[in-house]
Fold:
Amino acid sequence: MSEQLSEKEYEELLRELTEQNDGQEGLDLLINNFSLVPADEPVHLPEEPKIAVRVDGLARGERFWYAKEMAIDVRFNKKIEVRSQFELRLAFGSLKPASNKTISTLRKGQIGRLHVNLEACGLYTAGEYVLQMKVNDIPYLEYSFSVDEEGKVSEGKTTLLSEHSAGSFLMGRELDFDEGRMVMGFCGCKEVKELLAHLVKLRKLNDLRSDLMIPRLLNNGYVLYDNGKQDMDELSVCLAKILFGNNVDETHIDYADEDMDDTLHTPPFDHETHRCWMVTGFSALMGNGSSNSVNGLLKFMKHKKSLGRDLIVFVGSEQELKSFFKMYPQFGKFFPKQNRVHTGGETVTELISMVFEFINTNNFQCTTACRSKLIVGLKKAWEKELVKGVNEEDVEYFVSNYVLENQGLRLMRDDKCLKASKEWSQMMMKTIEAEDVDFSSFYADQMDEFEDRMSRLDELVGLSDLKQNLRDFFLQTRFEVRRRELGLSNQSDNRHHMLFTGNPGTGKTTVAMLMGKVFHAMGLLSKGDVVKVDRASLVGEYIGQTEKNVSGILKQARGNVLFVDEAYALFSDKDDSRDYGKRVVETLLSVLAEPNPDILVIFAGYKEDIERLMSMNDGLKGRFPHEFFFPDFTADELTLIGRNLLEKNGYVLLPETEACMKSVVNQMLLRKDKKFANARWMTDFVNVQVLKHTARRVTAIAKPQKKDYQLVLKEDVLDAWQELCQKQAKNPDAKRIGFVA
Structure:
C-alpha cells in the first residue's frame, strides 16, 4: 500500500530520486510507493492579537517574589472566522515547560477575548518566559516576555509561526515520544531543543531512503558544548534514539582516563542496533605523545561516517573543543557548524520551579516560611555556583535527602503528630516547615572538595610551611565570606594573586594545579583549571600580536589559574623598546587590579629573578599579596620521593636499597648547582637510570620469578649512579639528566 505524502514532500522526494537514478526509474519508484495526501480544508488563523501578562497571587519576600499563577489576556480586533479552539501553555526562555496546557474556545463571528490563568508546574519567579499558543491544533504564535525581580512584566515580543519554523515543530505533535519529551524537559539546552526538528526530519527522510534502497544521508556527527551541569550521557543517548529509534547502545570514550585503551574497539555489526559514541577528554589529545590516539580516533571517525549507522557526539567545554579543532582541523569536516550546539542556558528560575514541582507531585505543601527559605537558599547556592547539576535526579536527591528526610525526623520527635486525629495527622504529614530545609548538601560538596584537594597537597613530600600557610589562608577566606553573608563590613576584594619562588623541580606547577581546585572549592574561582603559559605563548613578533595573544589567554584563563612560568623572562635586561614582553605586564596590570576577578594569576620562577621582576614595575609588587617559597628538597625528602615512585608502580625496595639510594642522593646534593631540578632529577634518575639497570639484571636471569620483577636491588642503584657519573665525566658541558638548561 502506498504511503501518503504532502505535495511539498512529494516534490522534494521526486527531485532527489530523479537526481540519483534514471529519471523514469525514479518516477516509477515514486508512483509505486507513494501518493499525495488529499488537500486539506483551508486553514483559518486569526489576526495577531494583543497579549498582556500579569503575575497573579504574587507573594513577596526579601529580594524575591513567587507566584503559582500567571494571568494571560489575549484580545482580537477582528471577528473570528471559524469556531476556534485555543491551546495555551507557558515555557521558560529555554522552552522547558513551565505550566500545563489550558484549552479555551471562541465562537465563529465573535470579536474574541481569551482570559486564562496558567498554573505553574512548580513556581513562577523572576526570569524569561515564552507563551506558546496553538489554534485548532495548529502552532500559531509565541509571545516572549520577562518578569523582573519586582514582579513587573516587560512588554513582550509576538512571533507568528511559519509552518517550518523550529517553534512550530516544537509545539506540534511530533515530540509525542519519550526521548523528545525528555529533551524538552531539560533545563537550558535551548539550542539542543531547536536541533530536534532537524533530527526528526532527518530520521524520516532516511527511513524513506532505506525503503527505496537509497543510501542514507550521512549526517551523524554532533558537538555538544558542555558547561558541567547536564547529564551528557542521557542527553547524547536521547539524541541518538530520536535519530535512529530505540535500538541504541552507548559507549563512552574518555581520553582523560589514564586506563583507557587507545584502541577503539567496534562491536560486531548488528543490523538491528545502532550505537551512540560519546567522546570526551580532548585536552589529553592536545599534549605530547598523543599522536597515536589522535590518528586512531580519526580513522574511527572516517569508518563511522561511511556507515552512517551510529551517532558520534564530541562533548567538552567550548574552549577545549575549539582548541582541539584548531590543532586538528581534519576533524572539523565531520561536524558542520549547525551540528555544534551549546547545552547551557540553565537558570535558577528553572531550578526553583523543578524543586517545587517535585514537592507538589509528591503531595506535600510548604509553609510560607519554608517556601521563602527554599527560594532564598536556592538563589544563594546558584549565585555561588555551588549547584553541580540541574536535572530531575539532582532535584530529587536534594528534596528527598535534605528536606523530606528532615521532615520525617521532626515528625518522629513530635508526639502530637503520632497522637493526633487522622485528619490532623494527615495535614501535619504533608506540611514541610522551614526548619526541615537543609542546604548543607551544596556547601558540604564545597568543603569536601577543599578537604580532598588539601589532602592531595598533604600527600606531597615536604612543603610543610606552604601547607600550613594555605590552611590559614583558607580559614581567613571562609571567615571573610561568612562576614559578607552576615552583612558585616569586609575589606577583602578577593584578589589573591601569588608569587611562587624557588628552584626547578620543587613542586610549583604541581601545587598550582591543586591551588586551582582549592580556590574553586572556596568559591573564589568558577572553574579551577590551570592555564600554563610562558614568554613564548604571550609575546608576539609584531605590533599588536602581543595584545591579541594576552587577550585570548586571559579569556581562556577566566575562572581558572593563570600560571606564568619563568615570569622574569617577560622583561629583558636590556632597555629595548622593541621588547614586547613589557606590554604583557602592562596588559596584565589592569586584570591584577580587578576586585573579585574570577582569575588567580601566579608568577613563578627563581626567587632572585622574581624579586628583580617586581622591582622593574612600580605597580607590580602590590598586585601580588601572597608569596610562597618552595625550598629545595632534602636528601630524606628526595629519597622518599624515589621510594614512593617505585612503590606506586609495584616495586619493592629492600632496606639496603633505600639506604644506598639516600647515599647517592647525598652525593648528588654535594654536586648540585642553581639549575638542579630536585624532584624532576629524582624522577628521571629512577625511571631512566635505576629501572634500566633493574631490567638488565632481571632479563639476564635464566628463569626469573615474579619477585625478581618486583625487587629493586642495591646494585641497580649503584650501577645507575656509576653510569651517570661516567657520562658527566666524558662530557661535562652536556645537559645533565634532570637538569634545566
User: Anything to note?
Assistant: The first helix runs from residue 7 to 20. The first strand starts at residue 3 and ends at 5. Residues 734-741 have pLDDT under 50 and may be disordered. The chain has six domains: 3-36, 50-174, 189-342, 348-438, 443-630, 635-730.
